[in-house]
Structures are given as structure tokens and as C-alpha cells.
Specification:
three-stranded antiparallel beta sheet; four-stranded antiparallel beta sheet; 354 residues; alpha+beta; TPR_rpt; repeat; Immunoglobulin-like; 12 helices; protein-folding chaperone binding; Serine Threonine Protein Phosphatase 5, Tetratricopeptide repeat; Protein SGT1 homolog; TPR repeat; 10% strand
Length: 354
């Protein structure tokens, strides 16, 4: 029974249905928790789902159960590289290469790790302030008149990625204690404050591309970064993380608000006037005039809002299953079958595998 579930999971993975694949592997593991291959394969599905921490945990379990399983080391190396844990990734890949010396992927990924480690070390060296040469002839009066050096403001790189229902934001701040990180969520506001010892606090407070559900958002402080998950209020593809940079690519579904009253934003620090920020955002949205692609998106959104239930189901199903290449309002046509991806003329659909 467990092997049958694993075969179905493999089929789902090849069809790019990674959520289903991960779920089926989990059921197979429940039936046979001693099978290392199930954990390694679920790790691969988790990598595709951008669940890199879970993928590392699965790979570690697979290695514990079967230390000679080469693909488990590949999965751990790939997931650790995504988490920017390059030294850990390299160690796992080198161990895997000793287990499977004929597997060329290990050598290629180790070379990539070496390059990334070298770049990381170079960045650390550049961040160290140069030592000023001492001079015994410098007059004390001049030294007293020199203005004190202002502490450098830490600049942490950030990236964002997304799934249909959520957006992930990674702020690459290494070695920051959890108590030094404060993250707050508004309807369309993200506020991140990171206190750094001896330096000015880092602030990242963008107005977001789309609205979110604050009570469903969460964050985690890891050793190399702060990982933030934003729950979208509407199933649309964000063109960017911040408002005003591009247009949404999907029609708006009918997302009913679970709470009719004004949301309360949890915060350990008083003084933020979220109501004022929310009012400003709503005023900007009201005054905004649409044209071009924005007008077209609003046109499709209006169609969706005025459609009946079957039309909405057809639009959502066709768009999601076709990876955004098909939008149908005919439920009878798309309701009984999977909608295949149909790339535009001159383009080719590809599936990416390790």
C-alpha cells in the first residue's frame, strides 16, 4: 500500500502537482516510516514548494535511515543552498560524493557552493571598516574638533517569492537574536524592525502590492535570515512586492472577509497609527486612475464579480491548472477535465527537474 502511494506521488510530481505529491509521500511515510526513499522524495517535493526547512529535515531523516542514499545528500545540499547555508550544503554534498563518486551532480553543486562561499567571504571582508593609521603628530585640538563617526546603517538584502495563496519574504540578516526582530502586519502594510547591537536599527516598511490577511501571516527568525509568510487576501499574482510596480496578472476571486469589523494588529510596541496608514492607502486606491494593462485587469475583475458561481469556478480552475495560460468561463467544458497549459505562440512550455 505504501509503495502504491509513493508511485502516485511520483506521478503527481511529474505533473507538477507538488502539493499532492508531498501529501501522498506523507501518507506513504505514515504506513512505512522506515523507508528512507520516501523521506528523500518528499524533500524534493518540499523544495519545489519552497519549503526548504522542511526539505532539510526530510533529507536528514533519510540519511539517518539509510546513510548510503545518494539522493538524500543531493536534496539536503539543494535545500541548504536555497537557505544560503552554503557550508552545510557543501558538507552534505561532499559526503554524498563519497557515497556515489560517479554522480556528476555532486561535483557541479560543490563547485557552485565554493563560488558562493567565496562571494560571501568577500562581502564580509568588504564590510569590515578600514583601520585608520595612527599619528602621534596629530594635534589634540584637531582630534577634538572632528565629528564623531556615525554608526553605519545595516542594509540587509531581501527577496520575495510567491504561491497562489501566499507571498514569502526573506530578509537575509544573519545571526540576529529573535528578541531583536519585530514584525507587524497591516491590511496592506508590512513593518520589519531589526535591532543591531551598536548600530542604527534596520527598518523595512513597504506598502505591499496587494492586500493581505494579517491574522494569517507569520514569520520565523532563522540563523541566516528572517522568513516572512504573507497570506494573500486575493488569489492574484503579484508583479512585485511593493505597491505600484506592475499590475496583477490574475482575476480577483470572490474572497469573503471572515471578519467584518476593523482588524486589530498585534504589536508589542505602541505608537503606530495603523488606522491612519490604512486610510491613506484606501484614499490612494480610490484616486488611482487605471489605463492600459491595469484597465484590462479591472475589466476581467468586473466580469468575475458579476459572474455566477459556475463561471467563477471555471475561471479559477482554468487559470490555476494551466499555469496562467488559459482563462475560461465555461464550467461544463473545464469542470470534468484538467486544463492543460497552452503557452503563447512562439513560446515553449518546460518542466524543470533536478
Amino acid at each position: 500500500m505504501a509503495s502504491e502511494l509513493a508511485e502516485k506521488a511520483k506521478e503527481a510530481f511529474l505533473d507538477d502537482d507538488f502539493d499532492v505529491a508531498a501529501d501522498l509521500y506523507s501518507k506513504a511515510i505514515d504506513l512505512d516510516p522506515s523507508c528512507a526513499s520516501f523521506f528523500a522524495d518528499r524533500a524534493q517535493a518540499n523544495i519545489k514548494l519552497l519549503n526548504f526547512t522542511e526539505a532539510v529535515a526530510d533529507a536528514n531523516k533519510a540519511i539517518e535511515l539509510e546513510p548510503t542514499l545518494a539522493k538524500a545528500y543531493l536534496r539536503k545540499g539543494a535545500a541548504c543552498m536555497k537557505l544560503e547555508e552554503y557550508a552545510t550544503a557543501k558538507a552534505a554534498l561532499e559526503k554524498g560524493a563519497s557515497v556515489a563518486p560517479n554522480e556528476s551532480k555532486f561535483e557541479k553543486m560543490i563547485d557552485e557552493c565554493n563560488l558562493l562561499i567565496a562571494e560571501e567571504e568577500k562581502d564580509l571582508v568588504q564590510q569590515v571598516p578600514p583601520t585608520l593609521p595612527s599619528s602621534s603628530t596629530t594635534p589634540l585640538a584637531i582630534a577634538a574638533d572632528a565629528p564623531p563617526a556615525a554608526p553605519a546603517k545595516p542594509m540587509f538584502r531581501h527577496e520575495f517569492y510567491q504561491k497562489p495563496e501566499e507571498v514569502g519574504v526573506a530578509i537575509f540578516a544573519k545571526g540576529i537574536p529573535k528578541q531583536n526582530v519585530n514584525v507587524e502586519f497591516g491590511d496592506q502594510i508590512l513593518s520589519v524592525v531589526i535591532d543591531v547591537a551598536g548600530e542604527e536599527a534596520y527598518h523595512f516598511q513597504p506598502r505591499l502590492f496587494g492586500k493581505i490577511i494579517p491574522e494569517k501571516c507569520r514569520y520565523e527568525v532563522l540563523s541566516t535570515k528572517v522568513e516572512i509568510r504573507l497570506a494573500k487576501a486575493e488569489i492574484v499574482t503579484w508583479a512585485s512586492l511593493e505597491y505600484g510596480k506592475g499590475q496583477a496578472l490574475l482575476p480577483k476571486p470572490n474572497v469573503a472577509s471572515a471578519v467584518s469589523q476593523r482588524p486589530v494588529y498585534p504589536s508589542s510596541k505602541p505608537g503606530k497609527d495603523w488606522d491612519k496608514l490604512e486610510a491613506e492607502v484606501k484614499k490612494q486606491e480610490k484616486d488611482e486612475k487605471l489605463d492600459g494593462d491595469a484597465a484590462m485587469n479591472k475589466f476581467f475583475s468586473d466580469i468575475y464579480q458579476s459572474a455566477d458561481e459556475d463561471m467563477r469556478r471555471a475561471m479559477n480552475k482554468s487559470f490555476a491548472e494551466s499555469n496562467g495560460t488559459v482563462l475560461s468561463t465555461n464550467w461544463k467544458e473545464v469542470g470534468t477535465k484538467k486544463v492543460e497549459s497552452t503557452p503563447p505562440d512562439g513560446m515553449e512550455l518546460k518542466k524543470w527537474e533536478y
